[in-house]
Amino acid sequence: MRKVAIIIALAVFAFDQLVKYWVTGPMGIDYPGAELNVLPIFTLRFVQNFGVSLGLLQAGSDTARWALVAMTALIATGVAVWIRRETQKPELIGLGLVLGGALGNIVDRIRFGYVVDYADLHVFGYSLFMVFNLADAAISIGVVILLIRALFTREPKTDVPVEKANA
Questions:
Q1: Does the pLDDT of residue 19 top 90, yes or no?
Q2: How big, in percent rounded to 5, are the helix, strand and coil portions of the chain?
Q3: Between vectors from CA 152 to CA 149 and to CA 157, what angle results, nearest 5°?
Q4: How many Cβ atoms from other residues are within 10 Å of residue 166's Cβ?
Q5: What is the dihedral of CA 47, 50, 52, 56, to 10 degrees?
Q6: What is the pLDDT of residues 73-123, one digit of tens each?
Q7: Which of 21, 72, 126, 149 is the most buried (most CB within 10 A)?
């Protein structure tokens, strides 16, 4: 069952890196300000993200950059440990998405010093989200799956009532 999470993580990681290569390589969207309008609501736009989610915790120095790498690696390690202990398939799917996305962004930060973001969804000139990438989307979807499962599903209790245990 845990293989599902690992396969998902590897697929997300590989596809994330492939799309980033395709956008910044053959498509040439590889410098600040470079963009390509794909649809009226979708633009490929090169952004160097020196922070974490929503541009928070900006890494303005090499020390901060490596601190973000270490922090993200620690989170990825925690997710990997959780995968080893988890038995529920929906949670494993969510964890696989989170792990694959985290690894994709870690590789960017190690290689470039920033995460490559490129996807800009917008309606009537207003962006619905910050510019993001596939890894960010996978992490967000994985977290939503985990939150929904934590908040809205109940596992059957396995505790034996005290009266029956003593009988």
A1: yes
A2: 60, 15, 25
A3: 85
A4: 7
A5: -100
A6: 999 999 999 999 999 999 999 999 999 999 999 999 999 999 999 999 999
A7: 72
What pTM was computed for the model?
0.86
Residue-wise pLDDT tens digits, 130-151: 899 999 999 999 999 999 999 9
Query: Rounded to the nearest 5 degrees, what angle is found at the Cα of 93, between the Cα atoms of 45 and 53?
Result: 35
CA distances from 145 to 7, 38, 119, 150, 152 (A): 17, 29, 22, 9, 10
Read off φ and ψ for residue 118, nearest 5 degrees. Answer: -150, -15
> Distance between CA 72 and CA 79 in Å, rounded?
10
- Which residues are annotated as catalytic? 117, 136
Residue pair 69/111 in contact (Cβ under 8 Å)? The answer is: no
Sheet holding 115-123, edge to edge: 35-39, 42-49, 115-123, 126-127
